[in-house]
Write a structure and sequence with these properties.
Largest sheet: 2 strands, antiparallel
Order of helices and strands: HEEEEHHHHHHHHHHHHHHHHHHH
Number of helices: 20
Radius of gyration: 24 Å
Strand order of the largest sheet: 1-2
Shape: elongated
Length: about 375
């Protein structure tokens, strides 16, 4: 008898989070693990399913949500969906079989809007108690990830979830594969923001990205966590950078007193915003030029570290490439990057092998080896 996904997750929770390296998918050194990023034109999930490739938990859904959007169902697909929901009205075992068949062509995330709209439009015929029963059956007993997600998407429409129900959702939400659905459910419940915050702190991949996107900055604790940890995920910080900037109130921080620790955190977020490849970034700040000028004005008063200098280097490239007249920004960045203290800081970081150190030293032509060469 197969082991359910729910039981597998339960067995791998340690101190409130999943064991490091846990994955629902087979992984190994021979596999190339796809975690995210902007897909190339014509990209297809089916093309990456062969030998040598495996998606990280949550990656297909994350890519769908951020880059592809909803899937258009054909007539046969819609009939399959309706058959599965009709079966949920009477036989949870048959319903799971039909949801698994539906999942062969349509992911739960890919058709979530049409799926939930059909349920709401037919709620007089589709019994809520029967749908709930099928949903809980699938999320606790199924070995099919898409069946679990369809079950969670049904529960998102239900308002009478008790503590036992929430515990099941919390458990599944600890896995990046199901965190989007868990976040959607908690977003609709009283006290759900605290649930989302707890999930965010115990996730490190796509789950953290989804949680940060939904998290409301209701308390100083949440805003501070967003500032210092909100962009930290193993996918790409760019997916969360704009949300963190807005929710942590970084723009307002730059207009007042800011500690060195806070400034270093702002640098990391701003650096992620400069790279607009995979997600919205610096162009969506409203007045990016004004924001960068405020940042640089503060930078000239701070003791900068290598991450700050990397951000300033990135801002110089950004300002150089923009159509607007940002010549003053280019000049200010260049002045900072040619100071003696900048060269010393970068040289030290490069020698220590710190993040950005060697790359920045090479980009700026700074020698960092004992004999004066960087070879």
């Amino acid at each position: 008898m197969h082991k359910s996904i729910y039981d597998t997750i339960l067995e791998n929770i340690v101190d409130g989070k999943l064991k490091e390296g846990f994955s629902l998918r087979e992984t190994g050194e021979e596999k190339f693990i796809i975690v995210g990023g902007k897909p190339n034109e014509g990209f297809s999930f089916h093309e990456t399913g062969g030998a040598g490739f495996v998606f990280a938990d949550g990656a297909p859904d994350g890519i769908t949500l951020y880059h592809f959007g909803q899937t258009e169902m054909d007539a046969d697909g819609r009939k399959q969906m309706i058959r599965a929901l009709n079966a949920a009205n009477r036989d949870e075992h048959e319903a799971e079989r039909l949801f698994a068949k539906l999942a062969e062509k349509y992911t739960a995330v890919g058709i979530v809007d049409a799926f939930q709209k059909y349920i709401m439009n037919n709620r007089s015929r589709l019994r809520a108690d029967a749908l709930c029963s099928t949903a809980f059956y699938m999320i606790t007993t199924s070995a099919n990830a898409e069946c679990v997600k369809y079950g969670l998407e049904i529960l998102e429409l239900m308002s009478n979830l008790d503590e036992t129900d929430k515990t099941m959702i919390r458990t599944l939400g600890l896995c990046d594969e199901f965190s989007a659905q868990a976040v959607w459910i908690f977003s609709r419940l009283e006290g759900g923001n605290d649930e989302i915050f707890n999930l965010a702190k115990n996730l490190s991949g796509w789950g953290r990205i989804h949680a940060v996107a939904a998290l409301k900055p209701e308390t100083p604790e949440i805003r501070r966590w967003l500032l210092f940890e909100g962009i930290d995920n193993y996918v790409l910080p760019q997916y969360s950078a704009l949300a963190v900037w807005v929710k942590a109130g970084v723009g307002e921080m730059l207009k007042g007193e800011i500690s060195d620790e806070e400034f270093h955190a702002v640098s990391r977020i701003l650096y992620a915003l400069v790279d607009e490849g995979p997600a919205e970034g610096i162009s969506d700040l409203g007045d990016p030029g004004g924001t960068v000028r405020e940042y640089l004005e503060i930078a000239e008063t701070k003791e900068l570290d290598v991450v700050d200098y990397q951000t300033i280097y990135g801002l110089r490239d950004w300002a150089t490439d923009e159509n607007d007249d940002y010549s003053d920004i280019v000049l200010t960045c260049s002045d900072i990057l040619t100071t003696e203290i900048c060269e010393e800081t970068i040289r030290k970081a490069a020698k220590e092998g710190r993040s950005y150190g060697e790359a920045l030293a090479n980009a700026l032509g700074i020698d960092y080896t004992e004999d004066g060469t960087d070879e």
